[in-house]
Amino acid sequence: PALIYGCQIAYFSGISEPLGIDVASLGMNYFEVSFFGYLNLSNSFLENFNKLMWFILGFIIFFYLAFFLYMLAIHPSEKENQKHKIKALIFGLEFQIPIIYSNFIKMMNSFWATTTIYFIIFFLSLLLILAFYSKGKKDIISTVEQIKTSQVCEYSTGYINQNNDRFRVKPILCGNYKCYGINLDKLEVITYLPEDYSQFLDIPKKFL
């Protein structure tokens, strides 16, 4: 949970800090950020699950195909010898696996192995958090460029009434205290109260 929170808050910081917004000022709590983190993680997992299954299936097919072609290429007079070799290899693995496992457990219980594992976990966690921060920066830069070059309103575009002035807003991120977005009419970064935001009832075609 702590790593998921760290990655998600890093992503939120990535889409906020380049535009001068402190994500802490929006009032996002631990549970809210963690919830979004789990949602994004689940979404990414489901998007890549199909690719992973195809990769595993392809690997299994390749392995069996390579083994079949290998056995097919062996001369008939050598097939019995190859079968004995394969059986001996399997028997050797069955004999060596408990010994290897025992030695591995002893090694993992040592001080240096434990220290190395914790260092690797820390280093990989840091890289993952930095990757989420970098992704947030790329996403907000892409959004800003799209807003500058496009005149088409998306379904998420809403309106805010402040000081008798009404303007279009593209929401970026919301917390419990306030939200921040981009004023599409003046191309300004603004913060506003969530209750000040409104939008027309328009269901996008992709949700129908």
List keywords for this structure.
alpha+beta; single chain; 13% strand; 208 residues
Gap between N and C termini: 34 Å
Low-confidence stretches at least 5 residues in length (pLDDT < 50)? none
Largest sheet, order of strands side by side?
4-3-2-1-5
**Total E-strand runs:** 5
- Number of H/I helices: 4
Computed over alpha carbons, the radius of gyration is 28 Å
Biggest sheet descriptor: 5 strands, antiparallel
Order of helices and strands: HHHHEEEEE
Shape: elongated
Q: Average pLDDT value?
A: 80
* Class per helix and strand makeup: alpha+beta
**Helix coverage percent:** 55-70%
Strand content: 5-15%
Question: Can you characterise this structure?
Answer:
The chain has 208 residues and is α+β, with helices and mostly antiparallel strands. Helices cover 62% and strands 13% of the residues. It contains 4 helices and 5 strands. α1 crosses α2. The chain starts with a helix and ends in a 10-residue tail after the last strand. The model has no long low-confidence stretch (mean pLDDT 80).
Outline:
The protein is α+β, with helices and mostly antiparallel strands and 208 residues long. It has helices spanning 2-16, 30-73, 79-108, 111-149; strands at 158-162, 165-174, 179-183, 188-192, 197-198. The relative contact order is 0.14.
What's the SSE blueprint?
Layout: H1 2-16, H2 30-73, H3 79-108, H4 111-149, E1 158-162, E2 165-174, E3 179-183, E4 188-192, E5 197-198
Antiparallel strand pairs: 1-2, 1-5, 2-3, 3-4
